[in-house]
């Protein structure tokens, strides 16, 4: 496969010349899968990178794998001219400027549910721990204080769990909570099929007012930024608990700290933070650290052996499929093309601005050059078109040259 940009548009490269950069401790299963497929150039780092370090690391990368802490802005992407695709080895893709990547002809793949169960299990454990007052009692014992008491200690059975964002994780949490005898209510911007006896309420405030524990499972979007602030916390029941394992920007941490200080909330569990350390060698600071009744975890909702192994294989497979076959199925920012094998033929990939005349120009050039098109697959969105063309192997070089010089081309390449 080749990976080209308008700056260096025409290359065809064998697998061992293509470079994968995998940051943030991506599971070794991903590395093994890539190497087993002939991609021997796999560079890994246990940490997230930023600034000049990130730019240097990806300057000559053809494929990049990250998790939630590597920020890929348009400026960063502009400094990685060979980048053909990005793998987000997680669910969230808010750390990537998806539109900028699309405009640069770079599809982004993620693992939409490989860690769903892990997050749901952690949240259920936190619901039980918070309602029993365990964080506080545990902290006291670590200071040699014996707090044997039933005060503020409750069963979860019969209590109400409010879920905000009833998607993959929210629904799993709801199902598990009902197995423990909880009542489940939820708020979502979309009308959702309620699982079990869960009830969708009309508004966020209705869920806040009715719940003993509120758990957040929305993605980071402009609408969810700081969606739980002072007013929303004030609308929660006195003595209620808040869980955030979604994104750090969803909750106003100062407002949460104030509500814990005043005693309006009896506890919280927080896994995600507005600013998170880049790696395990960096220290963590938060206004929540001095509360005994807050369970703090270092963004490990999806960090289980099972989830990481499964994410590693899932996202690496998607990158391989794109590299070997051209398929963009399940890309989160790109026209999706699912493709059959192209054995015995040469496959050309062309990513272009979706403006009138591009496809006509491609077809005309092929026709004038006497190149027979064996198969053609096209998908577009409002800005970008992605066309995959199979031609006879002996026509590949001329076809690539013709295709790459069409006005409106963002990227073009041939599969090796
Ligand atoms: N803590 C962790 O380690 C961890 C792990 C996985 C995912 N996450 C986070 O959890 C989020 C949710 O994951 P998921 O797989 O359930 O996603 P999902 O897309 O399946 O579900 C998200 C739900 O939120 C709803 N929603 C969106 N905007 C909303 C709004 N303004 N108000 C109410 N509902 C809204 C959507 O309609 C959808 O039903 C991810 O985007 C990610 O940020 C965190
Ligand atoms: O593994 C990570 O860094 C992120 C986990 C989680 O937030 C996700 O979006 O899947």
**Assembly state (oligomeric):** single chain
**Poorly predicted regions:** 1-11
- Shape label: elongated
Order of helices and strands: EHEHEHEHEHHEHEEHEHEHEEHEHEEHE
Which structural category fits the helices and strands? alpha/beta
List the strand order in the largest sheet: 8-7-6-9-10-11-12
Radius of gyration: 25 Å
Q: Please give the number of β-strands.
A: 16
Share of helix among residues?
A: 25-40%
**Termini gap:** 4 Å
Beta content comes to 15-25%
For the sheet with most strands, the description reads:
7 strands, parallel
Enumerate how many helices there are, as a single number: 13
Bound small-molecule species: nicotinamide-adenine-dinucleotide, (2R)-2-hydroxypentanedioic acid
Average of per-residue pLDDT values:
95
Protein name: D-3-phosphoglycerate dehydrogenase
InterPro entries: ACT-like_dom_sf (IPR045865), ACT_dom (IPR002912), AHAS_small-like_ACT (IPR054480), D-iso_2-hydroxyacid_DH_PdxB (IPR050418), D-isomer_2_OHA_DH_cat_dom (IPR006139), D-isomer_DH_CS (IPR029753), D-isomer_DH_CS1 (IPR029752), D-isomer_DH_NAD-bd (IPR006140)
Pfam families: 2-Hacid_dh (PF00389), 2-Hacid_dh_C (PF02826), ACT_AHAS_ss (PF22629)
Family: Belongs to the D-isomer specific 2-hydroxyacid dehydrogenase family.
